[in-house]
Amino acid sequence: ADLQGYFDTIVAADQKIEPRDWMPEAYRKTLIRQIAQHAHSEIIGMQPEGNWISRAPSLKRKAILLAKVQDEAGHGLYLYAAAETLGISRDELVEMLIDGRQKYSSIFNYPTLTWADVGAIGWLVDGAAIVNQVPLCRCSYGPYARAMIRVCKEESFHQRQGFEILHTLSHGTPEQKAMAQDAVDRWWYPSLAMFGPPDGDSTHSERSMAWKIKRFTNDELRQRFVDMCVQQAGILDLRIPDPDLRWDEARGQHDYTQPDYDELMRVIKGDGPCNQERMEHRRRAHSDGAWVRAAARTYAEKRAKNAV
Amino acid sequence: ADLQGYFDTIVAADQKIEPRDWMPEAYRKTLIRQIAQHAHSEIIGMQPEGNWISRAPSLKRKAILLAKVQDEAGHGLYLYAAAETLGISRDELVEMLIDGRQKYSSIFNYPTLTWADVGAIGWLVDGAAIVNQVPLCRCSYGPYARAMIRVCKEESFHQRQGFEILHTLSHGTPEQKAMAQDAVDRWWYPSLAMFGPPDGDSTHSERSMAWKIKRFTNDELRQRFVDMCVQQAGILDLRIPDPDLRWDEARGQHDYTQPDYDELMRVIKGDGPCNQERMEHRRRAHSDGAWVRAAARTYAEKRAKNAV
Amino acid sequence: MSHVGYVLGLADDALVAAQRLGEWCSRAPEMEEDIALANIALDQLGVARMLLTYAGELEGAGRTEDDLAYLRSAHEFRNVRLVELDNGDFAVTMAKLLFLSVYQRLLYDRSIGVGDERVAAVAAKARKESAYHVDHSSRWVVRLGDGTEESNERMQAAVDLVWPYTDQLFEVDPDVHALSVAGVIVDPSTLRPAWLAAVDAVLAEATLTRPLDSDSSVVRRGEHTEALAKLLAEMQVLHRAHPGARW
Amino acid sequence: MSHVGYVLGLADDALVAAQRLGEWCSRAPEMEEDIALANIALDQLGVARMLLTYAGELEGAGRTEDDLAYLRSAHEFRNVRLVELDNGDFAVTMAKLLFLSVYQRLLYDRSIGVGDERVAAVAAKARKESAYHVDHSSRWVVRLGDGTEESNERMQAAVDLVWPYTDQLFEVDPDVHALSVAGVIVDPSTLRPAWLAAVDAVLAEATLTRPLDSDSSVVRRGEHTEALAKLLAEMQVLHRAHPGARW
User: Fold this and answer.
1) Domain limits of chain C?
2) Which residue windows are transmembrane per the record (chains C, D) (predicted)?
């Protein structure tokens, strides 16, 4: 009771819970699930963009894309490290990803069909991620909050790069412009769905708010994202594929069409366009690398023995 | 002694030795080695041309090339079958190819770098093969002679197709013409080397002639090939890369520069440009397919047992 | 989907299947299988060429079979995703071939008498080839499914992997339906029960389990996986590098 | 080989190496290794860009780094065959990287003070990166060579596979030799003893056997394997599909 009281006080005071502090078991579990899912998303998220590294249309773009995908691996690593402070190992988490017990963000189950998709992912998907993650920099769990600060800094860099790709395309040849518009058409609604189900249907949401893991509801964040995109789409000279999108004077926000939440549920369940490929790719990388990891372990053990 | 006498009589009378006939052990071994090497060459020979199936520049060419490479597999099969009549199994022969105890024609250790190489292989390599093989249709060993009749028919078809590819290229755009000439430049001497070392250095040659396995010497066949090519090169409007090539009025044949036999020896020994890739490719196909062959055997055994 | 779109769909299924099968060349588990796979690739390629030529005529813009094969980009291809999937191991290739060829056989069989005489003529030629493809892939699926423990596992994994892509074969399209009602062509969506019965019989003999159908909405023709653009990059590279050249 | 040819050789080695390393992205045996390989790819790509730009200037025909990277065909590339070989398993990749990076480190080290100031400047930047590449690949070669029985076998097989391609790094060329005597650039053929000593030390620590040198004549730069054209088909496809476009 004392411990719970102390925990509540810290959270209420907007201070940080640290790994060695007592915390409710449900808080720990919620955090593990959320951080792990976030880490898995970074790792799986390397695939759709990685798909275009070999074909990047200029060496400069190839370098930027390589660096970006590398950053995602880095994010994955420090998020796994943050999760490990909660008493679970990265190996366990990776196992749970591989055997499907834990999820990653459904957005990565959509294919990157053209180069413009790399731009759209940067602009929309990283944009949505930032809107989601900026509040997490103030999350009540210290290691997660600190990881998010680092992640957000790089994500906003990525978002700008995506914007720049689309801007170049939309001001290029007619084929390039069409490619950019097609990508925005395909990624818009899946990006809106990244904020999760509408508030009414969102489980766990309320408790996470109370624990100050979450600071805003799904719908609040989604609205913020829409408002941000509308303005940027104007600069990009690209159309957001929503005929009902309009400024609501009274609300001081945009009205917009909700994404297809049934589709979101299907994709989460495993029936998205690329779920199989993404998982298969990850599993193969993991199993193809098993002999390498085993060799590294064996070598380290030999050296440790010789050192004694 | 009687048996030997009968064998000698048959050979002398230009009749065929058949599988159940007695034959000298050395004759059997020579034939096994030669037929196996020939069969292996067909199988390895699928690779350099197979390399261009995916990129054939028109659907018609793709179809022709697919059919050609398929024919090569077919030739491999009936040559292995001919070798099997000599009391060795295809599995044993394949093992000997895979572990390097038996050779295949060195020509297939050169890379196909452009589409024109497909034409050059057809025109020069298949052309040389035909010159080599036509006399084998009269070989003293029946099954081999009959296999060669079938092979030769298809080879001459392939040779015409190669000629046609080069003809189209050499009468196409300047880039196409350059591509064709470059291919001929690279394949000319290796093709000459296909006839083996000069007569003076050729082991086994004399005995094979006596047995009527071989009918002409390496140099006789090489000369025949050169004479044939010179005339066709004219029609192709392509240059044979030999500054010393000229008609010798006295001999009634062309003088020409010999290929680099040191290079031939190096390639035979394993140091050609693609020896490693070709063997590695074959080994991988064989080992990747092991589980399939095992399944087929197991299934057949189950069925056989149930049938009893 | 327009009439041209329909014909292009059949053509592109065959063309992309041929391209994938051609990748096996010199890599098959047995030499006999090298020959068989090349044969099937040739059959598919033959159908693709006839149908592409016809599609170009229907379109009326003067495009040849090569223009359509080599100068369209991925989003213009009308093939189902099933055929563009990577070859995977031999089990995946056989699963893909079984599902495709049972579909093609049914489609060609029923197209023999349709109003579109060109399609009918191609179907008449292709149906026999198709029956061989069904036979060949069925035999392998059974051998592998009912072979060793390893082959059974691989074959089941292959069926599981490929199954979700079979939906798209039976896409429901109002234009196609209308053309079908008018007797011009066969509506593929009507083939599903017969297809399922045929496939089920093979899977049963192979001691394999048919995966559950997903409740995902059907992906329409024209939507592709990431694999198609890469396949086309290789297939088209030489042709595109020499605009206007003859080969 | 001309001066431009020499610079293009260094550039293309780095570019093609970067392309192959980039293929590992999201496929590495460990996440840390995904990061490391991307890092090395980025270093190689950076060097390639500087040298391609310089080669374009030397050539004087107004070609940019992208013109040179995307609009040359395979036979115009000057890279050694070593870098274009398929990635193979992780052991093959590490063998390739060790052999290449030891060579590059020596070349860059000795190029610091050469008369070609542009090459010298690139070398000054690249030598530190190169030292890291050597370190990284050496550690892996040792770990794998002296790891499990399987990893030892794979690492030895990888060394055996790649070894014959190392000859080409040390090609003897009279023009390059002349430029080197004039102090303009470093003649790679002079690096062989130092390279061999460095590589030998790593192989010994890794309990691996150095393959015998073949007596094959050295393959000259500009001669390639079948792999390069396929690599370029993928690398160049998008750029070539949109002539003149900005990205």
Assistant:
1) 3-209+219-241
2) none
CB B159 within 8 Å of CB B127: yes
**Tens digit of pLDDT per residue, chain D (247 long)?**
899 999 999 999 999 999 999 999 999 999 999 999 999 999 999 999 999 999 999 999 999 999 999 999 999 999 999 999 999 999 999 999 999 999 999 999 999 999 999 999 999 999 999 999 999 999 999 999 999 999 999 999 999 999 999 999 999 999 999 999 999 999 999 999 999 999 999 999 999 999 987 666 678 899 999 999 999 999 999 999 999 999 9
For residue D206, the cross-strand partners are none
**Residues in contact with A261: Cβ distance below 8 Å, sequence separation at least 6, in sequence order:** A193, A197, A198, A201
- How near does any CA of chain C get to the CA of A201, in Å? 21
C-alpha distance from D233 to closest chain C C-alpha (Å): 6
pLDDT at position C216: 64
Q: Which chains touch C (3 or more CB pairs under 8 A)?
A: A, B, D
**Both tokens of residue D107?**
């070349």
CA distances from A46 to A51, A279, A297, C228, D223 (A): 8, 12, 26, 19, 35
Nearest to C234 among D230, D240, D241 (CB): D230
For residue B222, the model assigns a pLDDT of: 97
DSSP state of A35: H
Using CA atoms, how far residue D195 sits from B193, C109, D199, D202, in Å, is 36, 67, 6, 11
Using the structure block, give the residue that is written with the tokens 């919620």: A30
Per residue in B182-195, is it b (16+ CB within 10 Å) or e — as a string?
bbbebbbbbbbbbb
Nearest residue on chain D to A281, alpha-carbon basis? D27
* pLDDT interval class at B200 (50, 70, 90): confident
Q: How far apart are CA C94 and CA D118, in angstroms?
A: 56
Low pLDDT (below 50) residues in chain C: none
pTM given for the model? 0.95
Burial of B227 (0-12, 13-18, 19+ CB in 10 A): middle
Spans of chain A below 50 pLDDT: none
Which CATH number applies to D3-209+219-241: 3.40.30.10, 3.40.190.150, 1.20.1260.10, 3.30.70.270?
1.20.1260.10
From the CA of A113, how many Å to the nearest CA of chain C? 6
Task: Pick the residue of D161, D226, D231, D232 with the most B CBs within 10 A to test the interface with B by mutation.
Answer: D226
> Scanning every residue of chain C, which has its alpha carbon at the shortest distance from the alpha carbon of A183?
C75
Q: In chain A, count H helices and then E strands.
A: 14, 2
Question: Which residues from chain D sit within 8 angstroms of residue A288, using beta carbons?
Answer: 27, 29, 89
State the count of interchain CB pairs (< 8 A) between B and C.
140
| Inter-chain CB proximity D225 and B271 less than 8 Å | no
In angstroms, the first-to-last Cα distance of chain C is: 33
Q: Give residue-wise pLDDT tens across range C196-231.
A: 999 999 999 999 999 987 666 678 899 999 999 999
pLDDT for res B1: 65
The minimum CA-CA distance between B271 and chain D, rounded to whole Å, is 6
Cα separation of C121 and C113, whole Å? 9
